[in-house]
């Protein structure tokens, strides 16, 4: 038999086949477990939101909003967008559902698919998965350190080595004014030499120029936010570093690390891994003390991060994954097949995984299938067994076989 199709998955999307799914599920289980140990509560949000939410919250001048969103109109002419990141939806949910009434401090996590219209390449897809954590209500640097630790713990539990932490502080609207003025005057004469994006950023979002990969060399003497921090921001950054030290977390201060929008404040951090090539960022985050106010809420500090699970999966140690099965039924005739089916269902009720042939295949083919399925035990039933009210129970590892009464408790007792 041959199968053919002209269809392929769309560029930038990924098919995850059964064996690979085992790795994904294990990774997701580790993430969930760790997030719960940190008392983050899970939230799930819709695949699309109104485009306006991202324009406002992610920010008009970001690459995401400028170039990467999958935006479409519904039949009523409303502009909708497939979510490119999680924070906007988390903040929307927090405000819309009045979650601020549930306590001054709220800790959330999510595992969600994200969509960005980017050039597909290793580690960069158009549909990808992230896990993220957001803590709303605390201005404390302790929370920033706790967030960092939670992500590092996940990497450790996944047995991924070599992820490095970069940190920085970008100050607050108070100290940023002075910084932006100095930065702009430094950049002014260099502009003709800088890339198109940086020229655009100059008027919209100048801090982001520090983040430009193309112009890195040309702006290496630029002023950095760290040099302009006000006393409050300075103290916050010192505390953040001392908490990281206290937790035994190594970090590198990268004074060029920024997030470009006014509502990002103080702490920023990223996790990088050299093994990923040019897509070396595994995750990133920071504080956004001004965002919730900007989105219509009261003055509420917050902090969070997002990690790309697809990139983590590229870093996971290779391990061969196999499915297995507790029981496979080998039946000599259709009546035995029906009787065995009942036993399998009783075993499933007890928590065992079971399967059987449904195509009247030969005994040999049924045994071959049991092998292919990695069955631990085979239950064999034929006319003799039915007459005697027994089954043959074969342990596939040991190759041993014994006769057991056709009784679910007795069968389980023999395992
Ligand atoms: P990059 O600089 O690689 O484009 P980013 O700054 O756009 O990353 P964030 O918006 O901070 O990334 O998202 C957090 C994480 O999500 C990234 O560190 C990365 O692991 C993952 N991520 C972002 N975009 C993609 C993508 N297109 N495909 C796969 N993973 C992605
Ligand atoms: Mg990006």
Kindly describe this structure.
Helix content is 37%, strand content 22%. The protein has 415 residues and is an alpha+beta fold. The strands form three sheets. An eight-stranded mixed β-sheet has the order 1-5-6-11-10-9-7-8. The radius of gyration is 28 Å and the shape is elongated. The structure holds adenosine-5'-triphosphate and magnesium ion. Adenosine-5'-triphosphate binds next to β6, β10, β11 and α10. Adenosine-5'-triphosphate (ATP) binds next to β6, β10, β11 and α10.
Element-by-element helix/strand order: HEEHHEEHEEHEHHHEEEHEHEHEHEHEEH
Please tally the β strands and state the result.
16
Quaternary structure annotation: single chain
Largest sheet: 8 strands, mixed
Which stretches are poorly predicted, pLDDT < 50 over at least 5 residues? Answer: none
Task: Please state how the strands of the largest beta sheet are arranged side by side.
Answer: 1-5-6-11-10-9-7-8
Percent range for β-strand residues = 15-25%
């Amino acid at each position: 038999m041959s199968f053919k199709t002209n269809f392929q998955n769309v560029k930038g999307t990924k098919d995850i086949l059964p064996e690979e799914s085992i790795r994904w599920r294990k990774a997701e289980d580790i993430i969930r477990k760790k997030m719960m140990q940190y008392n983050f509560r899970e939230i799930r949000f819709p695949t699309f939101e109104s485009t306006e939410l991202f324009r406002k919250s992610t920010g008009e001048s970001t690459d995401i909003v400028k170039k990467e969103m999958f935006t479409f109109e519904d039949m009523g002419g409303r502009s909708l967008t497939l979510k490119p990141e999680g924070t906007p939806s988390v903040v929307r949910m927090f405000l819309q559902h009045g979650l601020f009434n549930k306590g001054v401090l709220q800790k959330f996590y999510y595992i969600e698919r994200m969509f960005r219209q980017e050039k597909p390449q290793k580690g960069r897809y158009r549909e990808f998965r992230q896990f993220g954590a957001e803590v709303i209500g605390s201005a404390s640097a302790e929370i920033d350190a706790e967030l960092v630790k939670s992500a590092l713990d996940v990497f450790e539990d996944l047995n991924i080595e070599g992820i490095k932490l970069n940190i920085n502080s970008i100050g607050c609207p108070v100290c940023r004014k002075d910084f932006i003025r100095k930065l702009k005057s430094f950049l002014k004469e260099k502009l003709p030499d800088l890339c198109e994006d940086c020229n655009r950023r100059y008027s919209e979002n100048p801090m982001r120029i520090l983040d430009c990969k193309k112009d890195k060399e040309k702006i290496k003497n630029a002023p950095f936010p760290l040099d302009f921090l006000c006393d409050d921001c300075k103290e916050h950054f010192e505390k953040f570093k001392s908490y990281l030290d206290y937790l035994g977390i190594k970090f590198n201060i990268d004074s060029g690390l920024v997030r470009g929008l006014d509502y990002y404040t103080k702490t920023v951090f990223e996790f990088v891994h050299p093994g990923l090539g040019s897509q070396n960022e595994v995750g990133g985050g920071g504080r956004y003390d001004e965002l919730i106010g900007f989105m219509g809420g009261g003055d509420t500090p917050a902090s969070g991060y997002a990690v790309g699970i697809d990139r983590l999966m590229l870093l996971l140690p290779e391990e061969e994954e196999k499915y297995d099965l507790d029981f496979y039924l080998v039946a000599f005739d259709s009546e035995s097949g029906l009787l065995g089916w009942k036993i399998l269902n009783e075993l499933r009720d007890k928590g065992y995984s079971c399967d059987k042939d449904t195509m009247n295949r030969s005994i040999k083919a049924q045994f071959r299938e049991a092998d292919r399925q990695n069955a631990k035990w085979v239950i064999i039933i034929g006319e003799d067994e039915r007459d005697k009210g027994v089954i043959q129970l074969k342990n596939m590892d040991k190759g041993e076989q014994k006769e057991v009464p056709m009784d679910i408790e007795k069968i389980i007792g023999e395992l």
